[in-house]
Design brief:
single chain; 7 helices; globular
Length: about 260
């Protein structure tokens, strides 16, 4: 079904930007005049004919001309919602809503297939003055990146296990070096949580990890944050470069990131 606000948006009168309105104004201010004794036609189509002019008694001021133009323009726009056109309009809006939902909530098919396993937690939180430091590790650098992303989401709720993987969301990030790549990667995920529908991810999986050209293609699995379901943790305001460390050559590929809370 088409929501009322979308209907209003689709058929609201554009007034002077509308061709019909401009034609009416042009007709009402045409150079040709008539005497007051003439028999004035009531047919609106007559006034759209070039050379005809509305009588001074009917439209005496410029304001009245514009009001009449808006009325006629609105009538034309309302024709979009005649019975024979409503179904087409609804189909167009429904298609747009489906496309918007696919972009916002990810692929709905992911709710049924290809749901990843929940990885073992390989992260911890370290105290830092006024902020908190995330520390992650893994078998390789890609896993450490994934783990630090999960650590960030887990910090925003006191029970990450309550987050269900109901939708899938793709994330792309790139940088000039590993540090900026990590920063933008986490920033993209934080943006996902910061705007409607406020997605909190249970699992983040990197599909492509290019540590030469510094690009990441990843996917997050989660659902909209709901205070009644997800116990609120601490809000993460921003990612920082402060004391950021990426030990790519170490055995555990440790990552340290300070987040602003």
């Amino acid at each position: 079904m088409v929501s009322e606000h979308k209907k209003a948006r689709l058929h609201r009168p554009p007034c002077f930007n509308n061709r019909v309105a401009r034609e009416i104004i042009h007709a009402s201010t045409s150079a040709r005049t008539r005497t007051m004794d003439d028999d004035w036609p009531s047919d609106d189509a007559f006034w759209l004919e070039e050379g005809n002019r509305l009588p001074e008694t009917k439209l005496q001021t410029e304001t009245e001309v514009r009001n009449e133009a808006c009325i006629q323009s609105e009538k034309k726009q309302k024709e979009l919602w005649e019975p024979e056109n409503v179904e087409l309009q609804e189909d167009n809006v429904d298609a747009a809503e489906e496309e918007e939902e696919a972009c916002t909530f990810g692929d709905p098919e992911m709710e049924l297939t290809n749901i990843p396993e929940i990885p073992v937690a390989k992260y911890e939180y370290l105290d830092h003055t006024a902020d908190v430091q995330l520390h992650s590790f893994g078998a390789d650098l890609k896993e450490s990146f994934e783990q630090v992303a999960i650590a960030m989401f887990a910090y925003m709720t006191t029970d990450i296990s309550k987050v269900e993987m109901k939708s899938r969301h793709e994330i792309y990030a790139e940088g000039d070096d590993l540090e900026s790549l990590l920063y933008h990667f986490l920033d993209e995920l934080l943006f996902l949580f910061s705007v409607e529908p406020f997605i909190i991810c249970r699992v983040v999986r990197i599909l492509e990890f290019d540590d030469v050209n510094f690009k990441i293609h990843a996917e997050g699995f989660g659902e909209p944050f709901d205070r009644s379901k997800h116990p609120p943790g601490t809000e993460v305001k921003a990612i920082t470069y402060s004391n950021m460390q990426i030990h790519k050559d170490s055995e555990t590929h440790d990552i340290f990131v300070i987040i602003d809370i």
